[in-house]
Structures are given as structure tokens and as C-alpha cells.
Amino acid sequence: MSPQSRPVSVMESLLEVLPIAEGNRDVFVDTNRPNPKLTGQSDRVFGGITLGQSLNAAQQTVSPQFVAHSMHCTFVSGRHATVAVEYHVERIKDGRQFCVRGVRAAQGGRTFFVALVNFTTQSLGSLHYGNSFPHDVPTPPSENDDDDSSANHKLPFLHHSVGIRLSSGDALARIHQWMRAREPISTQNSPNTHAHLAALACMSDSYLLAGAPHSHGIYDFASPPVSEVYDGRHRLSLPSETHRPIPRPHLNFPGSAPSNGRVTAMASLDHNLYFHDPARLRADQWLLSEIHSSWAGGGRALVHMKIWGRDGTLVASCTQEGLVSIEDLPEAKDSRL
């Protein structure tokens, strides 16, 4: 099948938004209701879906030469899985080199998410650098090794955990995982870069906030996040000489390592994403994420993520602050790094 005739992928379909009415260029509605089973909960929606849909709405209000370079988002409250979402876009600035859009996501008149999206024309500059690709990370599985038998087969993307990097000289634990859109992204979008940016925005919320408890030996979840929903052990962790596999005691696997506590509640508060090299981004090819947490206190935690392409290009950076509530387990043993 030629790229031009390739059907729209599950990722693109899930993140699609359309004008709510003819002639209204600034209000959009989601075309598909996300399956609540994506998170294993009855009425929870993976936050990355809202990130990708809001970016798609903003992208439809700028000229084709403008590409998103950052988005700054706040999760005001939860999103209901079965209720339509309206994305209201405000055209804050239209300049020659930069554009700014505000996006407000609402259900039944209730605002549950807001975002500020910045666009640029990608003019060339003389300063160019980026953090180096971590070369001690094993390569992702081949196409034939991908497993669709897990509970995550309804997700629009694949993710394969590498684990927590063991390094005595590194004060911060680093968590690595490979991820990509499950299906090839079509080339029918104009411009095509927009589809890959929206897909990356969706995937950027995968396994992010969990990096905070994991970096302190806390692996158990009362309600596992989307990246922790499995019904099998296949590819839970890729073999690595420099990483420790992430224990998952909530899955009740034999021999699961003890946890220093249990995460009883975890919710994103804000999400900041920077797109560094959109022209070289392919969200349907393997991307490596590196996650670490630099601070926690007052019931909140701050996490950071870098994302590279397989060619070593740093394509995006992300920070997120979220609520993390921990319950001590009397039987827990010290397994901190």
C-alpha cells in the first residue's frame, strides 16, 4: 500500500478534532470518545489524549508554515470518558515569526483543561546543541517482536520499558522506555508535521509522573497508570546490563520485588512540552524517553523527560508537576537505589 493511500492510523483517528459548526473556525469537538479501558478504570481518560487533541485544535488555526515549538498545559479537573469535548481556541498573537494560541477544553460548559501553544516558522539560527543520546540503553524490539496480546492493545501507541539505570556516580535515578505510535502515521495531513507533533504530545504523558515514586523505590499502585496496565509479562522490561527492571508488585507476579510504599493517588497538575526539531520527528518510529524526578514535597512531585529519535536527535523535552499520595507499607523493605 502506498503512503498516499495508507488509511488513517488509530492515533490520528483518536486525536482528530473538527470544527463544531460550519463557519466557526475557533471551536472544535472531538470525533471519537476515548475508551475508558485505556487506563483500566471505569471513567478515566489518559491525559495524553487531551494533550494531543488540544494541540490538533490549535494547529488548525495557524498558517501551514507555522509549527508548534512549545505547549504549556494545566489539568484543571478530570475528564469524563463518555462526554463530548469542545476545544475553544483563542488567537492571542499572529506575528511574522511567532504565533500564540490559547486552548480551553470543556465538557458541558465545565472547563477541565487549558493550554497555551506557541508556534514558530522554524527560522535557522547559529546556535544549535542538545543533550546526548544515552548509549547504554538497549535497542527497542524489532517490528516482528511487538506484542499486541496485552491489555494495552487498545492504546494508540506502544511502549517498552528498559528500567531504572544503575549508576553509582549519578545522584538521580534515570528511567528509560521506548515508545512509538502503534501504526504508521499517514502522509495525508497538511502539513504532515502536525500529525507527528500531536502524536508525540499524546505519548509524552506515558509513564511520566510514575517516575517520582519509582525513583524512591515505590512501585506499587492502588490504581495503576496507563503504562502499568498489562495482562502478561512480555516485554515488561528489555534486557539491560545497566538497568534494573522496574518491579510491578500490583500485577502479582511471582518474585516481584518489595515496594517502599503504595501510590494511593496520582494526578497531573501541569504539563510543559518543548518541541526541538519537528522536521526530524517521526512519532511512528521508536523514540527513547528518559525520566527523572528532581523534587517532591507538599504532596506534589516534579518530573522531567527528554525524548530522542533513534538517530540521536533530541526531539522534545517535558516537565510535569503532579499530585502523588503515598501510603506506607509496614512490610516494605528498603529497595532505594
From TrEMBL:
InterPro entries: ACOT8-like_C, Acyl_CoA_thio, HotDog_dom_sf, TesB_ACOT8-like_N. GO terms for molecular function: hydrolase activity. Residues 41-119 form the Acyl-CoA thioesterase-like N-terminal HotDog domain. CDD domains: Thioesterase_II_repeat1, Thioesterase_II_repeat2. Gene3D superfamilies: Hotdog Thioesterase (3.10.129.10). Residues 131-154 are annotated as: Disordered. The keyword Hydrolase applies. Keywords: Hydrolase. Its EC number is 3.1.2.2. It comes from the Eukaryota. The keyword Hydrolase applies. It comes from Sporothrix eucalyptigena. The gene is TES1_3. This is Acyl-CoA thioesterase. Residues 137-324 form the Acyl-CoA thioesterase-like C-terminal domain.
